[in-house]
Specification:
heterotrimer, A alpha+beta (291), B alpha+beta (284), C alpha+beta (244), B: 284 residues, alpha+beta, Ribosomal Protein S5, domain 2, five-stranded mixed beta sheet, four-stranded antiparallel beta sheet, 6 helices, 25% strand, globular, C: 244 residues, 4 helices, 9 strands, Ribosomal_Su5_D2-typ_SF (chain A), exosome (chain A), RNA-binding (chain A), ExoRNase_PH_dom2 (chain A), Exosome component 7 (chain A)
């Protein structure tokens, strides 16, 4: 991961600031940075979103392709995650350098979405045991300025919200052979219900307190963070400790409580932006990377 | 068209038989009668744990951990070596801990794992990363600047709670190798079965783990009361439920700790005895 | 011939352009704050990002350092969702390696590499959405990014593709026009008229080469005007910020 080198006094300054609930950029411990969310930025995907959280810049594209259902779940479609840590973010990711981090993030996403209720997979099934939609969620990391996991989960949720899957009909002829017919109308499509899609909240332990949405500098001061995924209803679907250090059990409990609170408000804010964008419809001025 | 006579021509479309078996009937649980003990199981029950340190002569430190459910993990550790590429990855002044996790090809039941497949390697790498994260806080890496320590865990049989057993075994092996540590990292796994009122269970067996809707692995440094690993996911539930699960898991770690300590002491005594015997033999 | 008509009787192409007309170009410099230089370009529906790091010390093995000039290091990748069919990996395939090499050759010709001996300049380009002319979009984006990084160049490098419909050359081919027919990619240093890269695929009659080359050159010069305006706008913006 892109890393910054901080001197001891710099670290001390950040740690003392956090102790006073005043961070280097003026935020409190439970405040997120200003986030920009835009959906439908890549037109040849089923759904896409770009999220800019401080200097962290994420582009997510969702592609729906037809596949065969998994053996264990013959009447469900499934999601596939892939994270590309492109060399854009830092030269260290050139070639295969970003693969390790990419698979780590992808594994985390699989765990976050392991809950059955997060996305209605049954609606992705076309024809039990034979055909289903496979949603390829491809994350492209363009710039990393701390708090990758949260930004990625926000972008994934926004992209899933934006995803439109064409409606198909299964036609069966007399001999029992099935034919799949794609709807001609491009507006005739299924939307996913993303109400239960969780967002990740990363809480970094700095000194005796924990902060959300740490910048790269703050991440350098933190020895251990707790990553939890929260749904809009406040339910936890996964948790993970990351980093070299260890955590006190009591502080883990506190962090979970904070995470739930922050996660809920994060969901509300995100949903509001998404609904606003949705209501503008085609009249919306697309900004993309030109803004 | 030239016909290939060596090839048996099968039907163009085929489906694996498992498909039909799974859909046809209600799955018969517990072919070996496992469902009987599954229902009345006390959620706080720990499986019997057997641990032995210092059993491999080639490795500097080694440990073997076996859980009642059939999980068997063998771990070996190698003390500080000069790092191959100085200054890479780890910040100057601290050592590096390299972890490896392997599943034996016969570890799983049935043909669930194709050895050497991409998904298996992926899973192994993920487990290795989790192992590293759990062990790093326990090892005094600052005492080994510019050096690397290596731990290798081999899962011989997966009977559930494999990662937790691997964490315990790896920290035992490191301690057995004489690596300076703050404490042993003790791992413990939990899972929750489907159903609204289902409680979290400690150290699930393999069938329980497969059925579970949520899983959690925790690692604790009991003497310092520090949590070194939390890794879990599954069906969403309120934070309070997860807190309860965590408490249960940490309590389990505390209860496992004496067993691991005992095995370490026994290994040290055994080593002393053999050293003394060798010394007397030399003088005689 | 059963091939679709590339030019209508009135002399328009399938997407309504005239033969020498480019697709709409929009670009922006300085997209990312952490990179030394970055740029984004849209040419029609093709969207590309370029990021430049450097010049900096050699990364990795120092033995690759060149004693008299800077090493230009390029990577070309395409987002997995950029194409109609999902790609399995963003880079590392043969085509990406080849295009990265072309990019390197193009920019070695344009950057004043002798000013930075024993150092390295990284150019990373990323196709976000592919709709024909990917390589050209990458070159144009990379030019802007290199300028954004403040690395001295001989000239802009502008790249454009050209094809032929019967005997009328078509500038900036769209993917529909790409099916069959000769294809010419030209990277030009417009001020001096020097060619940094010329690539020709499929068969083309010798007599028509001149016309196609001329069309591609024209298109490159037109692109140069657009890019130049982007750079000047950006410069004005930055100096205005500095002035306050």
């Amino acid at each position: 991961m892109a890393s910054v080198v901080l001197s001891e006094p710099e670290k001390l300054y950040i740690v003392h600031g956090v102790q006073e609930d005043l961070r280097v950029d003026g935020r409190g411990c439970e405040d997120y940075r200003c986030a920009e969310v835009e959906t439908d930025v890549v037109s040849n995907t089923s759904g896409s979103a770009r999220v800019k959280l401080g200097h962290t810049d994420i582009l997510v594209g969702v592609k729906a392709e037809m596949g065969t259902p998994k053996l264990e779940k013959p009447d469900e479609g499934y999601l596939e995650f892939f994270v590309d840590c492109s060399a854009n973010a830092t030269p260290e990711f050139e070639g295969r350098g970003g693969e390790e981090l990419g698979t780590e993030i992808a594994n985390t996403l699989y765990r976050v979405f392991s809950s059955e209720s997060s996305v209605d997979l049954k609606s992705l099934c076309i024809n039990p045991r034979e055909h289903c939609w496979v949603l390829y969620v491809d994350v492209l990391l363009l710039e990393c300025g701390g708090n990758l996991f949260d930004a990625i989960s926000i972008a994934v949720k926004a992209a899933l919200f934006n995803t439109r899957i064409p409606k198909v009909r299964v036609l069966e002829d007399e001999e029992g052979s099935k034919e799949i017919e794609l709807s001609d109308d491009p507006y005739d499509c299924i939307r996913l219900n993303v109400d239960d899609v969780p967002c990740i909240v990363t809480l970094s332990k700095i000194g005796y307190r924990h902060v959300v949405d740490a910048t790269l500098q703050e991440e350098a001061c933190s020895l251990a963070s707790l990553l939890i995924s929260v749904t809009s209803k406040g339910a936890l679907t996964s948790m993970k400790k990351v980093g070299k250090g260890s955590l006190d059990p009591e502080s883990i409990f506190e962090m979970m409580e904070t995470g739930k609170r922050v996660g809920k408000s994060l969901h509300i804010a995100l949903q509001k932006i998404l609904d606003e964008e949705e209501s503008l419809g085609t009249s919306r001025q697309k900004v993309g990377f030109l803004g | 068209m030239p016909l290939d006579h060596r090839r048996v021509r099968g039907p163009e479309e085929s489906q694996p038989p498992e498909l039909w078996a799974a859909a046809g009937e209600v799955p018969v649980e517990g072919e070996e009668g496992e469902d009987k003990d599954a229902a009345p199981r006390d959620p706080c029950d720990l499986r019997p744990l057997f641990a032995r340190a210092g059993l491999l002569s080639q490795a500097e430190g080694s440990a073997y951990v076996e859980l009642g459910g059939g999980t068997k993990v063998l771990c070996a550790a190698w003390g500080p070596r000069e790092a191959a590429e100085p200054g890479a990855a780890a910040p100057a002044g601290t050592g590096r801990l390299l972890c490896e996790f392997r599943r034996a090809p016969f570890a799983g039941r049935g043909a669930r794992w194709r050895p050497g497949s991409a998904s298996e390697r992926e899973a192994e790498r993920e487990a290795a990363a989790a192992l590293q994260e759990a062990l790093e806080p326990a090892v005094r890496l600052a005492r080994y600047p510019r050096a690397r320590l290596a731990v290798s865990a081999l899962l011989l049989q997966d009977g559930g709670s494999a990662l937790a057993a691997a964490i315990s075994a790896a920290s035992l092996a490191l301690a057995d190798a004489g690596v300076e540590m703050y404490d042993l990292a003790v791992g413990c796994a939990l899972c929750r079965s489907p159903g609204p009122a289902a409680a979290w269970m400690l150290q699930p067996g393999e069938p329980e783990e497969r059925r579970a809707v949520a899983r959690l692995t925790v690692a604790l440094l009991p003497a310092l009361n520090q949590v070194s690993a939390v890794l879990g996911g599954g069906q969403g539930s309120s934070p309070d439920a997860w807190v309860q699960a965590l408490r249960l898991g940490l309590d389990g770690c505390h209860r496992l700790y004496p067993v691991l300590r005992q095995s370490l002491l026994r290994a040290a005594r055994r080593r002393d005895a053999t050293a003394a015997a060798a010394a007397t033999a030399a003088t005689a | 011939m059963a091939a679709p008509e590339l030019l209508s009787d009135e002399g328009y192409r399938a997407d309504g352009r005239r033969p020498a007309e480019l697709r709409k170009v929009r670009a922006r410099m300085g997209v990312f704050a952490q990179a030394d230089g970055s740029a984004y370009i849209e040419q029609g529906n093709t969207k590309a990002l370029a990021v430049v790091y450097g010049p900096h010390e050699m990364r990795g093995s120092r033995s690759k350092a060149l004693p008299d000039r800077a090493l230009v290091n390029c990577q070309y990748s395409m987002a997995t969702f950029s194409t109609g069919e999902r790609r399995r990996r963003p880079h590392g395939d043969r085509q990406a390696g080849e295009l990265a090499l072309h990019l390197k050759q193009t920019f070695e010709a344009a950057i004043l590499t002798h000013l930075y001996p024993r150092s390295q300049i990284d150019i990373y380009v990323q196709i976000l959405q592919a709709d024909g002319g990917n390589y050209c979009a990458c070159v144009n984006a990379a030019t802007l990014a290199v300028m954004d990084a403040g690395i001295p160049m001989r000239d802009y490098v502008c790249a454009c593709s050209a094809g032929l419909a019967e005997d009328t050359p078509l500038a900036d081919r769209s993917p529909e026009e790409a099916a069959g027919g000769p294809r010419l990619v030209l990277a030009l240093l417009p001020a001096s008229g020097q060619i940094a890269l010329l690539q020709l695929s499929a068969r083309l009659h010798q007599e028509r080469l001149e016309a196609a080359l001329e069309a591609a050159g024209q298109a490159c010069r037109a692109l140069h005007a657009v890019l130049d305006r982007v750079v000047r706008d950006r410069l004005r913006e930055v100096t205005a910020l500095l002035g306050d």
